[in-house]
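User: I want to check something. If I give you two sequences, will you return the structure for each one separately, not as a complex?

Assistant: Yes, each is folded on its own. Here is the first sequence with its structure:
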Amino acid sequence: MRILLGLGTGDDSIHTLERIARRATAAGDEVSIVVGGPGPVTSIEELEERVRAELSGLDVDAEIRTLGADEDLGGYLVETAEREGFDRIVLEGGARSPMGKIQLSSTAEFVLLNATTSVTLVR
């Protein structure tokens, strides 16, 4: 299976990466990682460095693509998944409100509403 993993600058990015890397290793999936989204460029660069370090520790070979701070992660994921024939888009899954309802990031909401590819939210 070809998986396109979108990682933003949120706190759960590395947790999401770890879960997907373990699953990909066990299942023999091909993973491409897109790092980007809103936030300062230094945060994106720091996240990319952390992703590379985490991948080397997990012995996973994955392509890493880095977006600029002004590029839209959601739009990029939707377009790339369709254009390059990915089987699934994977994103961080958001949080729960005090009332127990899921709160999605604007990126997750955009991808869920616009992707024709299957989408998985990791919590």
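And separately, the second sequence with its own structure:
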Amino acid sequence: MPIGTFLCLLALVRLSQQQFPRACATAEALLSKECCPIWEGDGSQCGQASGRGSCQDVTISEAPDGPQFPHSGVDDREQWPVVFYNRTCQCAGNFMGFNCADCKFGFFGPNCEEWRVSIRRNILHLTSSEKNKFIAYLNLAKNTISKDFVIATGTYNQMNNGSNPLFRDISVYDLFVWMHYYTSRDALLGGTDNVWRDIDFAHEAPAFLPWHRAFLLLWEHEIRKLSGDDSFTIPYWDWRDAESCDVCTDEYMGGRHPTNPNILSPASFFSSWQVRPVFFFFLPITTLDCSATTGRFL
């Protein structure tokens, strides 16, 4: 099953695996193909002692891939995540997360029993204080290393099938830039410049809309955890009748530089953000600061 479809279904049904948990980025975890970290709340794998979840074999769909991807066994993302892990935490009830430590979307409280409705507002209708808080949270995420997740800097084969882990730290914000890239990038078939470009698991498949909803819910969830603000929601931009980019101003996402149209205005808060190159599978990419979660998908 393509990773885009897998992550979409997993996020909406029983989210248990979000890319590479730091606790599972070890040779021991990769060689055993088991990602069932301890939940600190009770000291058991997946919080099993508290009924939060249990370590189980990953179930893979038998449905065939579409004709857009006529290959098999060449891409780490095929039948995700079994190339890396074939046993993961399967969470019960309203719990989710790589170790069942979190609550499913919409649920709160120590036992995930409190249901709350989240209101997402038009970004153009935010007060100055609300807008400033939103930008402050983005900046916090941009400058805080994720304590839960790391990113891969090589393929499973380049990791010698797990004996030589290749991972690196990344900020909470850039993690989601990378996740978007990892899901949608070309397929690497092995060898120099041997790639399959006619595939995009995040955008050229039925999972396009639900995958991006799940993606944004995860991003919102991680910012809530980072900020400690359970009331935080991602604002939206209603661009249906817009004749230009209403949020491309220094008040919001940043206007154009007066002399260089390829960079942000120096008056924009985001102009101080650094563009960080990430070398993944020896293909240089850039974590564009606003590309994955701004624009039409605020």
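Because they were folded independently, the notes below concern the second chain alone. Helices lie at 3-13, 27-32, 128-142, 172-184, 208-227. Residues 208-227 form the longest helix (20 residues).
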